[in-house]
Amino acid sequence: MVDLRDQYLKIKENIDSAIHGVIDSTSFINGKEVKEFQFKLEEYLRIKHVVPCANGTDALQIALMALGLKPGDEVITPDFTFIATVEVIALLGLVPVLVDVKPDTFNIDPAEIEKAITPKTKAIIPVHLFGQCAEMASILDIAKKYNLFVIEDAAQATGADYNSSSGTVKKAGTVGNIGCTSFFPSKNLGCYGDGGAIFTNDDNIAETCRSIVNHGMKVRYYHDRIGVNSRLDTLQAAVLKVKLEQLDKYNKARQKAAAFYDVQFSKTSSLCIPYRDSYSTHIFHQYTVKLKGTDRQKLMEYLKNKGIPTMIYYPVPLHLQKAFRDNPYPERKYPVTEKLCGSVLSLPMHTELDEEQLHHISNSILRFVSGD
């Protein structure tokens, strides 16, 4: 699904030099590379504050902690996403309120958000799933109407552009009150371990997040609040600084591969290619199709036998996971999410896909769905 080795070999000299520089300095925690990467990412995102942290899940948790939400407060988020988004809500004693998504973009449905709001609702966490921004203009309008915070989960969309209603272009994660991302190795901007970051233009939120990530300290050994230990390792920051320079190139390579798939799969009605909405670029963290009248398991086995990996993101809706069976709103229905979980399939998508590989993947799929 991801070819990190070939990607590394193309930037090996710069990566090796960056890693050896950290080792030579022995500044493994909060070394200068962390600040340098932070400043570079702030410049790239055109945002005032980036707060590096240990991983994307921590980024979401720290963002919620920084807003001062209280146990019992409700946070609305999509049912069709990775569990981390909902996990942190529950860990803090908040109440995750799951809502359905749109059938075309797979992103949270603003109409479902508004229907789910109660007097206890304090925040919305839209997820920019698979590399395309959620419908932020509508979400921000709802948030303003009900005085809610908006925390963007941009873990799969770092580098995507959002065309705001004012006509300005903003990067994913910089539109709401806070943005969060992951630098997990397979992400569009990935390190060689775990890593994450929080984005905001709010000075007070940034200061609070910086304190929380370091045991609640602003001044060493003076703890102003309960915090966590969530720092981005210097080695990972050094890797990310090198890879950030390649991010736009990497995203264009993914878009090129996606365009190839689109042309090939337009030849069949047995699957539906990813939808692109006009308000966002799509940077294809995943290339996810919807199958129509095709046995997904048999297709996956067929492709596996041809050396082609596939994945299902996601096979089980969050509201049906054992961890969340105590749904506070059992009357809610999730027909879109349930249908997607039964029909989606993600194909190989990364920066190193060449035309021979793309032909092999697409031709194999077309042969299967045509019955050849």
Count of β-strands: 14
Write out the CATH superfamily name of the largest domain. Answer: Type I PLP-dependent aspartate aminotransferase-like (Major domain)
Structural class: alpha/beta
What coarse outline follows from CA principal-axis ratios? Answer: globular
End-to-end distance: 25 Å
Summed over residues and divided by their number, the pLDDT gives a mean of: 96
- Radius of gyration from the CA trace? 21 Å
Q: Runs with pLDDT <50, length 5+? A: none
What is the fold-level CATH name, i.e. the topology of the largest domain? Aspartate Aminotransferase, domain 2
The assigned CATH architecture of the largest domain is 3-Layer(aba) Sandwich
Counted by DSSP, the helix tally is 13
Widest sheet, order of strands? 1-9-8-5-4-2-3
- Give the C-level CATH assignment of the largest domain: Alpha Beta
- Report the sheet-strand fraction: 15-25%
Please name the defining characteristics of this protein.
seven-stranded mixed beta sheet, 372 residues, three-stranded antiparallel beta sheet, alpha/beta, 2 domains, 15% strand, Aspartate Aminotransferase, domain 2, 39% helix, single chain, Aspartate Aminotransferase, domain 1, 13 helices, 14 strands
